[in-house]
TrEMBL record:
Organism: Canis lupus dingo
Source species taxonomy: Eukaryota, Metazoa, Chordata, Craniata, Vertebrata
Protein name: Neutral cholesterol ester hydrolase 1
Highest taxon of source: Eukaryota
Record Pfam families: Abhydrolase_3
Domain Alpha/beta hydrolase fold-3 positions: 130-290, 349-409
Length: 436
């Protein structure tokens, strides 16, 4: 504990110990003394559970530890429920998350939230619009702008802030989740909803300027937004419909789980590497037995022919600057497990891994914003995509946060308020304001 105290100031633990001393000294009956010991032991166990070593540069480390411990225990309960055969672990986890994040009655008077089409003719000036795709590993959370029972506050707050500050129409898509549907159903939902919205009569109904529409999303939502962007460039009718794409710590590839950021953040909350790989396997309805092998890149070893050509498109020794690659070494297995991509060919599909798309696809993408966080396994997915887009001639803004962690942008209000949450959100909204 000495070391922990030194690093991060375990002040609360110290304050706890005199209480225990008093307990002991007062000559209490045996049962009470036993419960004191038990309580102290529980406190130590709880501290042990909550404490994880975090780099000093991360935003609000203690709060992040508590948030992570809460999320971790929710995951463990869900895994238990899964192993007892009571429910899919992601259904259980989403149930817990949604119950935790229930929205308070808060709602902004200046923002109109609606589930259905307006009937009347709008006479207001035309507005900008963002189609937003929420994150959550293709399996969790909710669009939250709807009145569905699953509404939770995180995305509601984000979309409300965007609508207010940009005076824009925000369309937050309630796509179907794992385990109800699997890849590529999530993409189909997002594409279908966006196509519907882009019809002239629908845009007219919502007073949206057809020349000022963007696609955006965070994490797995950033993955879906990027996939949608690529699909639109390949469709003559949709080619120039989007003015910008804005991707927040997007998931962009499943071929290399040993990029420098994956190596650096193996155990970083909110998204340790193992958890991310498991989200991928769940997205494809794959076999959990593959997760360990995928962690060491056995699925894309040199003897897996299908992967060889694609690996060059995420060659981080050339795509990332030395300031990020540092002393990290590529993990390339000579022999691995070719069964993995044969059973899960979706792993090598550019619709799931937009980073590996052909340059011919990338070059038609709109102006792009990519936000990345230092304390995030997905940092390098975003930075490599920025680099590949730039090489393809796309105008890219890469907005990197040294104290950011995965998911931080939705944590802006008490008790899960993080300084970097506010800064990332402001920076993102500012870019949209200036570019959409
Ligand atoms: C990776 O593949 C090699 C060669 O097949 C095998 O020996 C090793 O055990 C695998 N590693 C994991 C973690 O599955
Ligand atoms: C990655 O890039 C480096 C440096 O440009 C090069 O030496 C290496 O052969 C490349 N690897 C692959 C798999 O393309």
């Amino acid at each position: 504990w000495g070391a922990c105290r030194g690093d991060l100031g375990l002040g609360s633990l110290q304050r706890g110990s005199p209480g225990w001393g008093a307990c002991k000294g007062a000559g209490l009956p045996g049962t009470m003394r036993a419960s004191c010991v038990l309580l102290a032991a529980l406190a130590v166990l709880a501290a042990y559970y909550v404490y994880i070593p975090l780099p000093g540069s991360v935003s609000d480390p203690w709060k992040l530890m508590l948030l992570d411990a809460t999320f971790r225990s929710a995951q463990q309960v869900s895994n238990l429920i899964h192993s007892l055969g009571l429910s899919h672990h992601l259904l259980a986890l989403n149930f817990i998350i949604v119950s935790f994040g229930k929205k308070s009655a808060h709602s902004s008077a200046r923002v109109k939230v609606t589930d259905t089409a307006f009937d009347g003719v709008e006479v207001r000036p035309l507005k900008r619009s963002i189609v937003y795709v929420h994150g959550g590993g293709w399996a969790l959370a909710s669009a939250s702008m709807s009145r569905s029972p699953a509404e939770i506050r995180y995305y509601d707050e984000l979309c409300t802030a965007m609508a207010e500050e940009l005076n824009a129409v925000i369309v937050s898509i309630e796509y179907r989740l794992v385990p109800k549907v699997y890849f590529p159903a999530q993409i189909h939902d997002v594409v279908r909803a966006t196509k519907y919205f882009l019809q002239p009569e629908v845009l007219h109904k919502y007073s949206v300027d057809p020349g000022r529409i963007g696609i955006s999303g965070d994490s797995a939502g950033g993955n879906l937004a990027a996939a949608l962007g690529q699909q639109f460039t390949q469709d003559a009718n949709l080619k120039d419909k989007l003015k910008v794409q804005a991707l927040i710590y997007p998931v962009l590839q499943a071929l290399d789980f040993n990029t420098p950021s994956y190596q650096q953040n193996v155990n970083t909350p909110i998204l340790p590497r193992y958890v991310m790989v498991k989200y991928w396997v769940d997205y494809f309805k794959g076999n959990y037995d593959f997760v360990q092998a995928m962690v060491v890149n056995n699925h894309t070893s040199l003897d897996v022919e299908e992967a060889v050509a694609l690996r060059a498109r995420l060659n981080w020794t050339s795509l990332l600057p030395p300031s990020l690659t540092k002393d990290y070494k590529p993990v390339v297995q000579t022999t691995g497990n070719a069964r993995i991509v044969r059973e899960i060919p979706q792993l090598l599909d550019a619709r799931s891994a937009p980073l590996i798309a052909d340059q011919k696809v990338l070059q038609h993408l709109p102006k792009t914003y990519i936000l990345t966080c230092e304390h995030d396994v997905l940092r390098d997915d975003g930075i490599m995509y920025a680099k590949r887009l730039e090489s393809a001639g796309v105008e890219v803004t890469l907005d990197h946060f040294e104290d950011g962690f995965h998911g931080c942008m939705i944590f802006t209000s008490w008790p899960t308020n993080f300084d970097v949450g506010i800064r990332t959100r402001n920076s993102y909204i500012k870019w949209l304001d200036q570019n959409l």
